[in-house]
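Q: Can I see a sequence and its folded structure?
A: Here is a first one.
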Amino acid sequence: MSTQQEGPVGDANYIVPWVPRISSRLTHISYLEDLQVIYVRFPDGTEWQYAFCSLEEWEAFCSADSLGRHINTNLNAHPNRRRSVEERARVAGFVPEGDPGAS
């Protein structure tokens, strides 16, 4: 059974405070504790979010030897979805430079 969601996970009106995290799979990560949502940004600009993640799960993610492996073995079990370019632009008021969806 897949936990990937078509609809909202968390609240699309929150601005995500990104933390740079350079790895072979991710460029930025973030966590909104009040929503219990972990956000990740991939090198191509794609953003993904994982719902119902406790602070302990966030801390385990941050300290994982491999962030990509941790996503595959732990976070993918949570309801998750891709954040659309339109959603990110509406929240931030702009589309980030270099975003594959930018015109």
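Q: Show me another, different protein.
A: A second, unrelated one:
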Amino acid sequence: MGSQGLSVALPWAQALGALERGGHMENRIEIKYCTQCRWLMRSAWMAQELLTTFDQEISELSLRPGTGGIFEVVANGVVVWSRKVERSALITSGYARRYMQ
């Protein structure tokens, strides 16, 4: 899923809780990061922040290496944050909390 030209206006609350499997909710988060930019540690830190902030809402979180400057957070197949759109390489749990409300 490409992020060029994508507006990331969908609140986290709408993206999380979107998948129901076998009678329970499953929320899958992917953090796509650029290996050329050496953003593995940044993506691991972001994973920790999200898992701490949304410990009851997230059922699975994966780190997906990529190239070309990518740094995106995808919740249940929906891009909820993109470095290219936001023009910043860092989001915080405070940012995520703001969109959960």
